[in-house]
Write a structure and sequence with these properties.
It is a single chain. The chain has about 475 residues and is of the alpha+beta class. It has 20 helices and ten strands. The longest helix has 21 residues.
Length: about 475
């Protein structure tokens, strides 16, 4: 067996006893893969390294290592459930599925509803939401190695990242992942603009650092006099978000306000407003740039004080002031934060689901049932299936091939006489499952069957389909009891 030199061994000091032994056993297993020079650093191990930066639980790390796609080539298959437990085995199964699904097409960039359907399908089809985190980490690993690929592949992966995976990371509140996905994807899609912004930031970095450090030094010395402890630091700006603001405001990079930004974290709500008063006494504020998201939180629950001041050199500095609890809420998984960013509506279900995700990440021994709650809470009423052309349709749970036919087109539903699911003939009462590919068999004669309306027979689930059939019969003088 060859040795595997891997970066995550540096973190073994955080594990002891049985946990450390399991990690060592997982690494021993991936070390069995032979015949590929790339396995000096196996994919699953690199992915585990990405996740460990985020301090995920042990099961997630083990699943990332063991989801290496080429483990299936081993002469003697490993019984993951027997060695590492059912949760890890289920995670590996989900990740393997997520790594093989191919439903995205570049055309989806102009079809936001299709991209959203793909996102929801990916979330709904996993048994454990931690599998989605592992998949996102796989995408980060893929992007980091993308320079080796052709320009066509780079563009495809980058588009898919911005359309599917960055919004999912944002939706789950995993903002560090979101920012890295967006910046790397943008770099491949528009390298000229990316490097222009990066160069502009780099050229002025020293001046920004001087301005930020001067601000922090004066503020901290003033807070010491008031016996207020704080964390105060410059807030990094991400290239993709800068570009989005340039586009949204139609401004060049030099005209953006908040390239200079400072975050101040204090220990109480009272101190938030005390710090705000001190900041405004030391530097002149720009009145139109003040927002009190503590008194009036954003729809997603975000809380912080935002103000923009002018320093002695005339630089505009954005200052965010919040408590540690507000900061953790904003950074580690804002409930429904995706609604604010993506322009959607607030969802109580998503709030509960993101809270479940945070619980999974924070509780090292969280069990499968908790992660299952995420899926059941959020997706218990939908099923996602594909047409032969690869288009995704979003149907109510319990939908049949006949519901699918009516979702494609009313006349296809009316003329439906049979169906294939994944290439196999099935009855029209078959209950569809997410991820299945459905093909409708039609006749030239358009003639719905009235039995389709008998709910006891199970032909139709969707109210849309039922109304289409009823309308066809009404047009021909058939009356229905109310």
């Amino acid at each position: 067996m060859k040795s595997v030199i891997i970066p995550i061994e540096k973190t073994f000091k955080n594990y002891h006893g049985k946990d450390k032994a399991q990690l060592e056993r997982a690494l021993e297993i991936v070390g069995l893969i032979e015949g590929d020079v790339d396995y000096a650093r196996p994919k699953g191990v690199e992915v585990a390294s990405v996740l460990m930066e985020f301090h995920v639980d042990l099961k997630t790390v083990l699943a990332a290592i063991l989801s290496d796609p080429r483990l299936i080539t081993l002469n003697s298959p490993i019984d993951i459930a027997a060695e590492f437990g059912g949760t890890v085995a289920n995670l590996v199964q989900d990740v393997n599925w997520l790594n093989t699904i191919r439903v995205y097409s570049p055309e989806m960039a102009s079809q936001p509803n299709q991209a959203e359907t793909v996102r929801r399908m990916l979330l709904s089809m996993t048994q454990d939401v931690r599998a989605v985190l592992i998949k996102i980490a796989y995408r980060i690993q893929r992007l980091r190695n993308l320079p080796r690929e052709s320009e066509e592949i780079r563009h495809f992966i980058a588009h898919e990242t911005l359309d599917i995976y960055a919004p999912i990371a944002n939706r789950l509140g995993v903002h560090q992942f979101k920012w890295e996905l967006e910046d790397m994807a943008f770099r491949y899609l528009d390298p000229t603009t990316y490097h222009h912004i990066a160069h502009s930031l780099s050229a002025k970095r020293k001046g920004r650092e001087v301005s930020i450090n001067s601000f922090i030094t004066l503020l901290k010395s003033s807070l010491v006099k008031e016996n207020i402890e704080c964390q105060c630091y410059g807030r990094p700006k991400h290239i993709y978000s800068i570009w989005k603001k340039m586009q949204g405001k139609n401004l060049p990079i030099d005209a953006l306000y908040d390239l200079l930004a400072v975050r101040v974290i204090v220990d109480s709500l009272l101190h938030c407003y005390t710090v705000l008063g001190i900041v405004h006494s030391l530097w002149p504020p720009i009145s139109k740039e003040f927002d009190d998201y503590i008194a009036t939180p954003k729809e997603n629950g975000y809380q912080s004080l935002h103000t923009v001041i002018l320093d002695e050199e005339g630089n505009r500095i954005e200052v965010q002031i919040r408590t540690q609890a507000m900061h953790d809420y904003a950074e580690l998984g804002v409930a429904a934060h995706w609604s604010y960013k993506e322009g959607g509506k607030k969802s109580a279900t998503m709030e509960k689901s993101v809270a479940t995700l945070r619980k999974l990440l924070e509780e090292k021994n969280a069990e499968f049932s908790t992660s299952d709650d995420f899926r059941n809470d959020l997706f218990n009423d939908r099923v996602y299936v594909l047409t032969p052309a690869g288009k995704l349709l979003d149907l109510p749970k319990g939908a049949t091939p006949l519901d699918f036919a009516y979702a494609v087109h009313t006349e296809i539903g009316h003329s439906c006489r049979g169906a294939k699911v994944n290439g196999r003939i099935v009855p029209l009462t078959y209950v569809l499952k997410s991820g299945e590919k459905v093909e409708i068999l039609t006749s030239k004669k358009i003639n719905p069957n009235r039995n389709w309306l008998d709910r006891r027979l199970g032909y139709l689930k969707s109210p849309h389909s039922i109304q289409k059939v009823k309308a066809w019969f009404r047009d021909r003088g058939v009356q229905f009891r109310r």
